[in-house]
């Protein structure tokens, strides 16, 4: 079954058509990387999928249930939007942790106060997750006391604690020191090995190649190419993809 | 007049000064929040009217507002002015300070990074929950220094109640000064305000410190 099914998504900001007819399907356990130049619409796509932006055209569904669709120019949402919010998690580029809450509270508050799950059970799970991410000695710390890499791992834990069906990453390492990117990528790779369904917007090409089942190359609001990592990275026939990847390797002087 | 009798009379007035101060805080702090939320309303009429009211309250003298609230009912409806002026005085102060607090709240709310709202939305927090649990606690910390400023000003502004002859400390001090042709009551009043404000600043610093356990 498709966890996520987006079809013919369109999104504009004023005259700027950021997404022009994008369709994506993500299967259970699949890891999809989305690459492309800045302004190609990658982040906007994630923001539409996570209901942070409203779409101007198309429709999308989680677990086969339609979340929203555009009919006659009007967006129609499912009446029970909150149910869908429990299907996905989003890891932001800038973490967006809650600075006034301890590490533990950042993780457990939403499962307890939004999902109304049992407090002790949530706490036990949170401690387990923090341990797995190497944050067990930071339980009582505040986000501001953590390094960038630790903060991003914490925000991954916060998202996982909601038990999402699918996890989105919006350039999860772009705000990090190069030295700290590794620890976050390692954690994402670990999740991939555990068959977590993920869509990762990233500029880390080597990582995308190593971790994903499928790579999507976006440019100018459309999907230029889509395929297995080896096809896209090593044997692309597409001129635009070739050019983009060449520019990337050129930067590594 | 004996110095200690004067002090005693002024202390009686100081009780009323305190009454204005604490009642004004009690009403204006929550009222300010309501005004802020109204001024951010999506209904253009509501936000427009609220902003206009704020601009009038901030753009006209508090002294004038005190007179308007105290004597306005008499001029408009021929309702006789009650001898107990605490109620109109507190109403005028509360509304006026609510307008200032509203602007402080607004600046605090608008300084919050949009990412906090987005993270909350993705986690499924409702809008009221997002505001109460995530935004407001951080806003309070951000606005404490400017709120302290306003509270210190309020201590001194209570003396404006003399314009409607409310028997608070400054009014009494002024009466004694006039009848005794002495400057001493003014000095005493100055010391009272200064000590009161020193205490307010001390308490607010403690509150600020107790909230600075996390980095923004």
Structure description:
The complex is a heterodimer of chains A (253) and B (216). Helix content of chain A is 37%, strand content 28%. Chain A is α/β, with parallel strands linked by helices. Chain A has a six-stranded mixed β-sheet, sandwiched between helices. In chain A, α3 (103-113) packs parallel to α5 and α5 runs parallel beside α6 (178-193). In chain B, α5 (114-122) packs antiparallel against α6. Chain B is built from eight helices and no strands. Chain B has a single domain (3-210), classed as MetI-like (MetI-like fold, Orthogonal Bundle). In chain B, 81% of the residues lie in helices and 0% in strands. Chain B has 216 residues and is an all-alpha fold. Chain B is flat. Chain B starts with a helix and ends in a 5-residue tail after the last helix. The interface between A and B is medium-sized, with 27 and 20 residues.
Mean residue pLDDT of chain A: 92
The computed structural class of chain B is mainly alpha
The number of helices of chain B is 8
Reading the helices and strands of chain B in chain order gives HHHHHHHH
Bulk shape of chain B: flat
CATH architectural label of chain B: Orthogonal Bundle
- Strand fraction band of chain A? 25-35%
Which oligomeric state applies?
A: heterodimer
CATH class of chain B: Mainly Alpha
Q: H/E element string of chain A? A: EEEHEEEHEHHHEHEHEEHH
For the biggest β-sheet of chain A, the strand order reads 7-8-9-3-10-11
Question: In terms of topology, how is this protein built?
Answer:
The complex is a heterodimer of chains A (253) and B (216).
Chain A: E1 2-13, E2 16-27, E3 31-35, H1 42-49, E4 57-62, E5 65-71, E6 74-77, H2 81-85, E7 88-91, H3 103-113, H4 119-132, H5 148-160, E8 166-170, H6 178-193, E9 197-201, H7 205-211, E10 214-219, E11 222-227, H8 229-234, H9 239-251
Parallel strand pairs in A: 3-9, 3-10, 7-8, 8-9
Antiparallel strand pairs in A: 1-2, 1-4, 4-5, 5-6, 10-11
Helix pairs in contact in A: 3-4, 3-5, 5-6
Chain B: H1 3-39, H2 44-59, H3 62-77, H4 86-110, H5 114-122, H6 127-157, H7 169-180, H8 184-211
């Amino acid at each position: 079954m498709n966890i996520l099914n987006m079809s013919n998504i369109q999104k504009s900001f004023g005259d700027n058509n950021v997404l022009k007819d994008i369709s994506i399907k993500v299967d259970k356990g699949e890891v999809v990387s989305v690459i492309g130049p800045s302004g190609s619409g990658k982040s906007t796509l994630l923001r539409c999928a996570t209901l942070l932006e409203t779409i101007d055209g198309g429709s999308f569904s989680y677990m086969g249930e339609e979340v929203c669709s555009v009919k006659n120019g009007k967006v129609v949402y499912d009446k029970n939007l909150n149910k869908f919010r429990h299907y996905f998690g989003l890891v932001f580029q800038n973490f967006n942790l809650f600075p006034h809450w301890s590490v533990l509270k950042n993780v457990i508050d939403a499962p307890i106060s939004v999902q109304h799950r049992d407090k002790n059970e949530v706490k036990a799970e949170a401690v387990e997750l923090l341990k797995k991410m190497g944050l067990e000695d930071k339980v009582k710390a505040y986000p501001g006391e953590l390094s960038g890499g630790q903060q991003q791992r914490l925000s991954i834990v916060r998202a996982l604690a909601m038990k999402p069906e699918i996890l989105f990453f919006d350039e999860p390492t772009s705000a990090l020191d190069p030295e700290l990117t590794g620890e976050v990528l390692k954690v994402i790779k670990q999740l991939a090995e555990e068959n977590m369904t993920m869509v990762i917007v990233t500029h880390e090409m080597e990582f995308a190649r190593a971790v994903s089942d499928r790579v999507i190359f976006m440019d100018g609001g459309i999907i230029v190419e889509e395929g297995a990592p080896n096809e896209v990275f090593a044997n692309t026939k597409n001129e635009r993809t070739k050019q983009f990847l060449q520019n990337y390797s050129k930067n590594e002087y | 007049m004996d110095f200690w009798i004067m002090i005693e009379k002024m202390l009686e007035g100081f009780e009323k000064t305190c009454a204005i101060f604490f009642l004004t805080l009690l009403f204006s702090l929550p009222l300010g929040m309501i005004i802020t939320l109204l001024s951010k309303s999506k209904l253009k009429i509501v936000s427009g009217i609220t902003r206009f009211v704020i601009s009038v309250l901030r753009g006209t003298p508090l002294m004038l507002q005190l007179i308007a609230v105290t004597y306005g009912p008499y001029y408009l409806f021929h309702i006789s002015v009650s001898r107990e002026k605490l109620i109109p005085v507190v109403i005028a102060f509360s509304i006026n300070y609510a307008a200032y607090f509203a602007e402080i709240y607004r600046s605090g709310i608008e300084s919050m990074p949009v990412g906090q709202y987005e993270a909350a939305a993705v986690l499924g927090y409702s809008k009221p929950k997002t505001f109460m649990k995530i935004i407001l606690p951080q806003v309070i910390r951000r606005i404490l220094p400017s709120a302290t400023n306003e509270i210190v000003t309020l201590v001194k502004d209570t003396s404006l109640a003399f314009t409607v002859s409310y028997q608070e400390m400054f009014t009494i001090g002024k009466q004694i000064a006039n009848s005794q042709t002495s400057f001493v009551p003014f000095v005493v009043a100055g010391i009272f305000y200064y000590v009161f404000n020193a205490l307010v600043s001390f308490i607010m610093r403690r509150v600020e410190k107790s909230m600075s356990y996390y980095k923004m």
